[in-house]
Amino acid sequence: MESFSVRELRTTDTEALLVFETRNREWFESHIDARDPAFYSLQGVADHIAGYLSDLAIGAWHPFVIVDCRQAIVGRANLKNIDLASGSAEVGYRIDQRACGQGLATLALRHLIEQAQVRWGLTQLVAFAYKENLGSRKVLDRCGFQLEQPSCNKSTGNERRFVLPL
Ligand SMILES: CC(C)(COP(=O)(O)OP(=O)(O)OC[C@H]1O[C@@H](n2cnc3c(N)ncnc32)[C@H](O)[C@@H]1OP(=O)(O)O)[C@@H](O)C(=O)NCCC(=O)NCCS
């Protein structure tokens, strides 16, 4: 079986990340919000990485990539909006369509949970997934996230909020 690993995003990932995001653009846009079209260029991706790494430096974001045994990028996972005061962050992940169904999102989410605890000392993780995104909901469920019931006076559209106390 092929082996995969999760590592931090690097400035040298620009070309590989552009290939990954471009190849999967339509796939991702069918499940999650579309990116600004300006993202899909070497300069766009370089700016995106620089932004994420400066957010890492200030402790607001922790970006990772999932790589295969040839070090090709097959997925991404992020701890987003890290708030050390409230002990909370949001998780996000996306996997190459050709690599889905092999447990990579589960691997990535478990890595985020471990980093949230060990590196950041957080006490809660939050995830948002569209109601019909059954693959993502399965991953969240497997990792212990609970669906939060929307309050009756608050409309959340098709998006659902999931919470994992740590
Ligand atoms: C959702 C996503 C991250 C899942 O990645 P993955 O690597 O395939 O996830 P895993 O293999 O860890 O687990 C997925 C599980 O959901 C199941 N699944 C996938 N699609 C499904 C569907 N339409 N209905 C029911 N189950 C489904 C898989 O069979 C698997 O379960 P199993 O291991 O018991 O067979 C991937 O499809 C993706 O990147 N989608 C586009 C971006 C996205 O939706 N990101 C999440 C935003 S909340």
Please provide a brief summary of the model.
With 166 residues, the chain is of the alpha+beta class. Helices cover 33% and strands 27% of the residues.
Task: Write the SSE topology.
Blueprint: E1 5-8, H1 14-23, H2 25-29, H3 42-57, E2 62-67, E3 73-83, E4 88-95, H4 104-118, E5 124-130, H5 134-142, E6 146-147, E7 159-165
Parallel strand pairs: 4-5
Antiparallel strand pairs: 1-2, 2-3, 3-4, 5-7, 6-7
The structure holds coenzyme A.
Description:
It is a single chain. The two termini are 31 Å apart. With 166 residues, the chain is α+β, with helices and mostly antiparallel strands. Helix 1 (14-23) crosses helix 3 (42-57). It has helices at residues 14-23, 25-29, 42-57, 104-118, 134-142; strands at residues 5-8, 62-67, 73-83, 88-95, 124-130, 146-147, 159-165. It binds coenzyme A. Coenzyme A (COA) is lined by residues 28, 31-32, 93-95, 100-106, 129, 133-136, 138-139.
H/E order of the elements? EHHHEEEHEHEE
Gross geometry: globular
Count every helix, treating DSSP H or I runs of 4 or more residues as helices: 5
Distance between the termini: 31 Å
**Helix- and strand-based class?**
alpha+beta
Bound molecules: coenzyme A
Helical content (DSSP H or I, runs of 4+):
25-40%
